[in-house]
What we know:
The complex is a heterodimer. In chain A, 69% of the residues lie in helices and 5% in strands. By secondary structure, chain A is mainly alpha-helical.
Amino acid sequence: MSARNKELVALIPASLLVTAGFAGVFIQRSNHISNISLTYGAVFLALCVAGHVFIRFALPDSDPYIFPLVAALASFGIVMVFRIDSALARYQAQWFVLGLILFATTIVVFRDYRKLERYRYVIVFTSLLLLLLPRLPGIGYSANGAYLGIRIPGLFVFQPAEFAKIGLVIFLASYLRDTRQVMVMGARRVLGVTIPPIKHFGPVLVIWGIAMVIMLLLHDIGSSLMFYGGLLAVLYVATGRVSFVVVGLVAFALGSWYVSTHVAHIHDRILAWEDPFNAHLYNRIGGSFQIANSLFAQAAGGLFGQGFGQATLIFPGSHPAAYLLPAPQTDMIYAVITDELGLFGSAAVLLTYLLLIGRGFKAAVLSRDSFSTLLAVGLSSVLALQVFVIVGGVTRVIPLTGVTLPFISYGGSSIVANFVLVALLLLVSDRARRPVP
Amino acid sequence: MNGPIGKLFAVVVVMFAFLVAWTSRWTVFEAKSLNENPLNKRTLADEVRIKRGLIRADDGTILARSVPAAGGTWKRAYPTGSLFSQAVGYSNPLEGQQAGLEQSRGSELRGLQQGLNAVFGQTSSQRFGDDVYTTLDPKAQQVARRDLAGRAGSVVALDPQTGAVLVMYANPGYDDNHPLAPGGTQYNRSTQAGYPPGSTFKLVTAVAAIDSGLYTPTTTIDGHSPITVSGVPLSNDANEQFGLITLSDALTKSVNTVFAQVSEKVGIGRMTRYMRRFGFYSQPPLDYPPGQIRASRPYNSANGRAFRPGSPNEDIGRIGIGQGGLEVTPLQMAMVTAAVANGGKLMTPYLTSRVVNQDGATVETIGPSVYSQVMKPSTADAVKQMMLKVVEEGTGTPAQLGGISVAGKTGTAQIGPQGSNLTEPWFVGLAPVGAPKVAVAVTVDTTAGGYGATVAAPIARDVIQTLLAEGR
């Protein structure tokens, strides 16, 4: 079977998922079935098929499983968002359309994505600017103490970190392709630790500094961990030196220790993480209410979950609505998934991400040039870290910070940016798998 | 660069394994403690969406029902209010408060399924609880309230043949529609109050004396007064002197000195054994919240602590006449009477007769069960005859009913400081003597010199009359 036919067949799970999911929600709300809502599912499937047809023509040699895995996650996401708030699902569907348009545009414009290397400094400075935008008065705003979004009143809300992560990865892949040899060759060993030459390691230190500044300025550990982890992953693959990673982790740990003791909002998050059921913390604004209720929601789900549409999100009969789980459609969507589908459902979602990340690494392995390899590694790692940061936060593995669950959480920036990320992965894999003439 | 990529992927797999492990921790391993966490309002959210079943009296009168509230939730209404509040209790899940049958039969009223039904039964999100039928008799309950006439006190009536609780009324009560309103109390005197039983306890002493073979109803005992019991003089009411008197006559005339001697002769060991069989020293196994029911037993007046059963420090002579630190519930005295009425076989008391689901099918029937064989049937018969004489010619004549033979025993416990005339009047009775259908215990709190015969016995008579008139 050709790669593209495999892709088409692999879309079947996504279509089954979206059909079964909507059917489940409809059965639950049998008293108000509407044709309008049914069309969501149909439109969504049509979009998936359109994406497939586009790939068939544009990237015939690309990995056949990346797009179906994304489609499965996205179809699952739209069912969840629909179930939480059917009005939001309509916007989410619109974001999918925009995401697919940018997906196609990326593939058409950057068909030879290696020309991105030429603009690496433009890209990195744009990314840094984007990251700092939320701090600008007038358009920047903070949510729960973290400065993650900008708002053009009446137009849109935008989370620049979602795009900045891609820009930073492109820069790193390009920069380390050039310098990875010198970094290892020119390294000196001091007290058994390999120290790379400052001249070449400098930009890496800059990224570390940026991660720290993000934490300090934007008050967000989650995004910093994502950027910094992506950096370490690319650095490790580029140089093969574990010692760089160890030094990097120590540096990050020191930085986070400083920030967590000096930024009140992050300190609160850590206290809430340590002791979510402390009554004092629980009742405090910005305290542990969110993480504690995330755990309660997961406990309610158990092994098999309560079923689609069965989780309690709002206390019944409460006026105004008392949310049992704040931000169910974004940060907390994994807790809602676990509540409704149980351990098995959420493990299946995690496995889908793992397969997707695995396909990304596979593209990296197959690539024939260093830039492509490092780009694919960076993009896959950032995706993996983003999932880890939000799911780890919701399950109390690490302190909770607000990043989206890629393709599943409600949110335009997240959907669109991650579609661009996937477009780049497909571009890399198409080039890697293209038969050598 | 492929080696590091493989290792990097391994790290990602490990990180995701952590995520799955932690999700398992909350969904499976620590789910129970999370579900029971007091901060967790989810269980409450489920609770208020359940339409709890009805609670009905024996004749079908609705004692509790669910009415719709905001947002698809339900709340409870109690049409009979304070008449049944002590037995029925109330349920307010939002405040985490519940009492009475609403609590003890909560899982039935919520319709919690068990076994296979729990897995396959709950297909609908709309949940209905099952209806609970109680054994309570509204007419007799009404009579109990009327006769207590606002005085503090308690009336408990049992069906001695089954253990069904027919009447459980106590003053003061509360309106279970407004359980926290000032002036009401949820303290149920029928099951929670510890009163000195006075002479009604002589029934227990008589049972132990006759059943152990040491005495017969005709055994004669010296009834002079005062005598020394545990080093302290004990006298009869008004220091009345009786010469040699039979055990039966001593009960008829409620002679303290005789029963104190008998109790001392029977001894702590035997008395304790019979008291245990009657249910003393342990919480009555009523289908009622354990926090609202207490064990009847003697307490050490020196330190207020309960005596260990059979403790040699108990003043067994005074316990034998219902003093000596004995604190009993009206329910316990009704159980004593019921055991005598039912040929010595004490039935387990119960408030719920059956549970009926929304389709009208009976899903659970609470049948009679034996609590203990307290005494030989011959002993029960002998004591019953002695009690009959109490009502026919002794202290209990105000309990007489035209045409129906009532047997009983009065009690007038002296309470309050030495020399005060405060009393706790009691009457326990059973009827009809031939084949008893009703056993009743009545007490009125702290009267100024009131006697069991004049204060409590007429209430018992009216309740017995009402219950028998209804075909019991």
